[in-house]
Amino acid sequence: WGLFLLTVALGETAAAGCPTPCVCDNLRARVLCLNGSLTAVPTTIPQVGKGPGSGWWWWQPCGNSVFYLCDRQLTKKLNLRGNSFTVIPAGAFLGTLYLTHLDLQRCKVARLEEGAFRGLGRLVYLNLASNDIAILYQESLDGLSSLQQLILEGNRIEEIQPGAFGHLGSLTVLDLRANALVYLPDMVFQGLAVLRWLRLSHNTLHVLGSEAFAALPALQRLSLDHNELQALPGEALARLDGVTRLDMGHNPITCLAEEALAMASLKHLFLDNAALQEVAAEAFTRSPLLRTLDLRANQLQGLPALAGAGALVRVNLAGNPLLCSCLLRPFHDWLARERVQAEGTCEAPAALRGRTLDSLRPPEMRCGHHELSPSPTAPSEQPRAGGSRQCPRGCSCSPDFHHGSCENRGLQEIPQGFPRDTRLLDLRRNAFGMVPPGAFPDLKELVSLHLQSCSIRALHPGALRGLESLVYLYLTDNRLSTLAATAFEGAPRLAYLNLDHNAFTRLPTGAFQFLPNLISLHLQHNTIRELAEGDLAGAGGLRWLYLAGNAIKHIAPTALAPTVMLEKLHLEGNQLAEVPTAALQGLSALSELKLSRNPIKHMGDGVFLPVASSLQHLYLDNMGLQRISPSAFTGLGSKIRSLYLEGNKMSSIPNMSNFTGLEILNLRDVPFHCDCQLLPLRRWIDKLNLRVGATCGSPTEARGLKVKLSTTFQTCPGWGDEAASKPSQKKRSGKSPARGFKKSRA
């Protein structure tokens, strides 16, 4: 009888209380409501519990319309991924107080109301990735006292209000990657007393408050790579006594001065793909435990003998233009003396080109007269003579950091009179309306200019006149709909241009002719309808082009032709009905292509052939894709590192056995038809050491099962060979499903 009641409780009766369009997995106390049309959190989540004084599990409606547990043993895992909530209101989860895991990925959430998660005191995992959250308010995360992992990757967070994390005293991992953070104020992470890993990669961070990390006593790993930090934020990092790994790669940092880094516990430092030209001999004297130093792909001609780095065991200099002359001998001798392993090859002189550092002998490292000049020095931090220390009324100026700020002061005209050696000027959140000609006089050293959220409708010709050192320009969240061809004249070094969240209906034709050094162009979340021939004329050095969230239906075959150096092309969330194969011709450096959330239903033969030799990351998720031609991926192979196909409608995919370099493969929420034709895919998935998430959509008896666990393949020709290999797989993995399968056959 006990077994019978258990079967009924966890089977047919349970299903009756499961809200549409959800799936209720009672054995795991889990409810899945994936990729549906829900606009509000379901209030009829079924619950299972024990009868008073018995060992039997039973279902009982303890309320009028909602299934509640009589002894309060509630659903523990709730997955709402792929719905359309927009706002999570206060008290949204008060009916599921025993949740431990909550997944709200890709739910179009733009706002978390204060108290949205109140009552979820047992929640340990919350995933809010890939939504539209812009601001974290003070009470947005209230009530999550047990939370250990918070995933906020892929939103557009640009502001974190003071105290936003104040109630997360158990959090160990905070993921804020791929947001719109520009600045971290002091004490922004207050309350995270046990946080161990903070992920801030792929933001636009430019300035960190000196006390930004002061409230993180337990932090062990900090990821700040792929930001726009122009100098190592030494003062902010010095507060992190326990951090052992620091990721700072892909930031435009040009030099490391003496004692640049004072981190007592640091063991692993990554500064790859930056813009380093010089590292001082005493740069790491205050980081005595440093063991590995990754300086790949910089602009270093060499290093000095590093003082005070007695624990160092490995230095990676691969991809630097190393000059292996007598100037490098002190470093080479230091490597041998300290027994430090170094990677890197000589670029010059010609006689040593291609030689590895460890193969060199001192007599070979000779100098001609032209090589005896000292190496380039770091830019001077001293203000030039006559550099004034004045500051406009109502603004603040920092002479030590060469920063000026008039953020959110209600200004209607751009102030003037900043110190001439100002390098960063923050004018966000004012009401300028337009930027007149000559708006920034005597600021020849200005590197970064922030004009976000200033209601700017016009950038007049000559507005940037005289900004000959400007590298970063932020015009995000304004009202620009057009730009004159001469709008950027006078700023020839501009490399990073942010025009996202404006009102452009097409690209500002001709405006890029004056930007020969443009590297990154952000135009996402406008209303651009097409890319026409000539739109990107002059953008020959462009490497990253972001066009997500527009209304692009057509890309002319020659629209991207000027961008021969393009590495990243983001087109997700547009209206493309087919892969723009013709427009990809000539993009021989393209490594990342995002086509997610476009209405592409069919994918024909060879659609990625123009970029097959370079493509590494391909995003084809959530498109409603119904069919992929068997030859769609022709040309793609071992270079592919990540492939995203989740949230589509096809029932099979092409053979990808030659994708031998895959590190990420996402096949979640694809309704695979699990018959014998899918057996090659099933076998291939078995060989991958990856979690791909593939599940069966049909036939009926297999629906909802993992492809790897479905028994429908047992009747297929050749299955015996597959089954015969199971014992060795079981021995390697030790997973219980193999034992359960064997027992059921017995």
What does this structure look like?
The protein is mainly beta and 746 residues long. Among the domains are: 19-43 and 73-180, Ribonuclease Inhibitor (Leucine-rich repeat, LRR (right-handed beta-alpha superhelix), Alpha-Beta Horseshoe); 396-491, Ribonuclease Inhibitor (Leucine-rich repeat, LRR (right-handed beta-alpha superhelix)), CATH 3.80.10.10; 504-670, Alpha-Beta Horseshoe (Leucine-rich repeat, LRR (right-handed beta-alpha superhelix)), CATH 3.80.10.10. 8% of the residues lie in helices and 17% in strands. Mean pLDDT is 84; it is low at 1-16, 48-73, 369-388 and 722-746. InterPro entries: Cys-rich_flank_reg_C (IPR000483), Leu-rich_rpt (IPR001611), Leu-rich_rpt_typical-subtyp (IPR003591), LRR_dom_sf (IPR032675), LRR_TM_domain-containing (IPR050541), LRRNT (IPR000372).
What sort of overall outline do the alpha carbons produce when their principal axes are compared?
A: globular
Content-based structural category:
mainly beta
Work out the strand percent.
15-25%
CATH architecture of the domain at 504-670: Alpha-Beta Horseshoe
CATH topology of the domain at 504-670: Leucine-rich repeat, LRR (right-handed beta-alpha superhelix)
For the sheet with most strands, the description reads: 14 strands, mixed
Helix content: under 10%
